[in-house]
Amino acid sequence: MTAVHVVVPDGVDDPAAPSGGNLYDRRVCQGLARAGWDVHEDAVSRVGRPAFPASALAEVLARVRGGRVTLVDGLVASGHPEVLRPESARLRLVVLVHLPLGLGGSAEVRQREATALRGVAAVVTTSRWSRRWLVDTYALDPARVVAATPGVDPAGVVCGSPAGNRLLCVGALVPEKGQDALVEALAILTGGDWCCELVGSVRRDPGFVALVRRRAAELGVARRVHLTGPLTGPALDDAYARADLLVTASRLETYGMVVTEALARGIPVVATRTGGLPEALGRATGGRRPGILVPVDDRGALAGALGRWLDDADVRRRLRRAALDRRGTLAGWSQTTAEVAQALTAAASA
C-alpha cells in the first residue's frame, strides 16, 4: 500500500462555505483511499487571519514522516517558498494548485509562488488552462506539471420548462464571481417572466453582497433575483432540478465545476469567456457548444445571450440537445483520482 499525506485548508468540510476547491480535495482523498492508498490528512488553520500563515503550514509539514509523498493544497502552500523549499529536501512534495495566487497578484506574489512551485517534486492543476498558465508564466518544467480536471457525478436529466425562464447562478457571492454584472445584465432584459437564483455563500464578502442587493433594488429586479445562501447535497440538487439555464458571469475561473455539474443534468450554460470556463463547457458532437460564451464584464453581451435564450425556442432546443450530447462525454471522479495518483507516483520515484 502506498502512503500519501494530504494537507488541506481548515474548513474543507464546512457546509456553510462550500467551494469547488474543497469538494475537489475531499473527492480526491476519498478516491485515493478507495484505490488502495493509505491517506493521512492534516488541516492548516488560518486562525482568524485572511491568509494561511507560514508558521501553521510549517508546523503541519514538520509532523510528516521523512520521505513521505505529501500532497499540499496550493491555497495554503503556494505563497510560502520559505517553508516548501527546505521541506522539499525531506519530503516528496506535490502542490495542488486550484487557483494560481499570481493571477491578478503583484510581482512579489508571482515571484514567491514561482519560487515555491519550482522547488517541489510535482504540481497538479485542475485544468489544462491553468497548467499552461503556470508553465508559461513561471517557466516550470512541463514534465512536472499535470492537469487533473475535476470529475462530475452522474445525475438525472433536467428537462426544463418550455419558457426556459428559470435561471441559476452557483458560486460564493464575491467580486470574482461577477454577480453584480449578472444583475445589471438581467436588468437590461425587456421581456420574459424570468427569475434567477443566486446560490452561494453570503459570508465571505458582506460588502459585495450588499452591493448586489442594492443594485437589484435600484434596477427594479429585486423581486426576480433570489439569494438563497449556500446549498449542498439534496438542496443543491433541487436547485439544479428547478433550473433551465446555468449562468456564470465570473471574472476569472480556472475551471468551473458548476458548469459540468449543470451539463451532467443536460442544462445548457451561458458563461464568460475566461480562464478554464471554455474548457469546462467543452463541445458536443460536431463541435457544437452546449451554451454561449460572452466577454467578461460585458453587460450588453451577457444580456444579449440571455435574451436569445429566453426569446427563441429554437435556440433553447439547439442548446439543450448540445448539452445532452456533452453530458455523455463528461469524466467521473475516478479519472481525476487516477491522474492525481499518477502524479504522486511519479513524485515518489523522482
- Please indicate the count of domains: 2
CATH class category of the largest domain: Alpha Beta
Helix-strand string: EHEHEHHEHEHEEHEHEHEHEHEHHH
Helix content: 40-55%
CATH homologous superfamily assignment of the largest domain: Glycogen Phosphorylase B
Structural shape: globular
Treating each run of at least 4 consecutive H or I residues as one helix, how many helices?
Answer: 14
Number of strands: 12
Protein structure class: alpha/beta
> From the coordinates shown, what is the CATH architecture of the largest domain?
3-Layer(aba) Sandwich
What would you note in describing this structure?
Helix 10 links the parallel strand 10 and strand 11. The protein has 14 helices and 12 strands. The strands form 2 sheets. It has a 6-stranded parallel β-sheet with strand order 2-1-3-4-5-6, sandwiched between helices. The two termini are 18 Å apart. The chain is globular, with a radius of gyration of 21 Å. It has 2 domains: 167 residues, Rossmann fold; 162 residues, 3-Layer(aba) Sandwich (Rossmann fold), CATH 3.40.50. The longest helix has 17 residues. The protein has 350 residues and is of the alpha/beta class. Helix content is 42%, strand content 17%.
